[in-house]
Amino acid sequence: MAAQDDQEEYMLADTKGRFAQAVKEGRPVNDVSWTPGRIVLSNRRLVLVGNDGKRTVPLSDVSKIGGRHDVSQEVQRVSNYVSLRLGEDVLLVAAQNHDEFKTNVYQAFLDRRVVYARHPAVAGGVVQDTEWEKARLKVEADGVSVALESGDFVRLELDDIGTLDTAERTVFDEKRQVIEAEHTNDEGGSVQTYLSGEGWRMAVLKSYLGQNQERTSGAVELSESEREVLMALYSGVSSFDVPQFLDMEVERVEEIFERLIEVNVLEEVRRRREVNLKPRGRNIASKAMNEQ
Asked: Is the pTM of this model over 0.85?
């Protein structure tokens, strides 16, 4: 259950679309059909206006932003929609511009919210001695910006998220659920940012940050040498220094680079041995280092 919103109300979307109730009192609706109409979203409520009248949904009633609920062919034919769980009910909303509206929905729950952040909590696989501090979130179409109280600014881009985990950690002497998001810093190195706050809102934040996880977490069969190269890059070793660091022939390292570029683990920055880890590569390297 979302907490009562204490922010001043402001508009996020006013668009056309259609909506339907897919689940009622815990049971799928057999004859579900779409109702065309107007969709109005603020940071406090969702208003759906159709020929049969107006329905107002306080966002505090929403318990989950979910995936697809294709309970009928009528619903299945719509390629994009947002599903909202309201207790035992599920409401589907298909806006005219789905991507923009989906971002607006996450903004309604997360924008301008104050959370706790620790950055960088981990850098190159090494735990840092940074402290927890307050931070404010800003949701955008391609990621989340985190403005730290100290004045620093952290950018979590959806296409740059490697691993995304949840763990229980001590935050200001209190045990809390913490999101651990791995991404790159301005220098291209692997870092982890920890975020904590109200449990339900953190679940929404993890859902938003994890939208591209399927693309980055897919299994790739790698040789021991390929894993060693990934771990070296993950630890901060320059791609130019990998041959010397691993005592490996330059030609062999270049062959490995080519193979890892082909399987979407590395991206080429410049010709001749300059590469960066992609999110999938950082994901694999992190797991490999944890197995050491």
From this structure: no
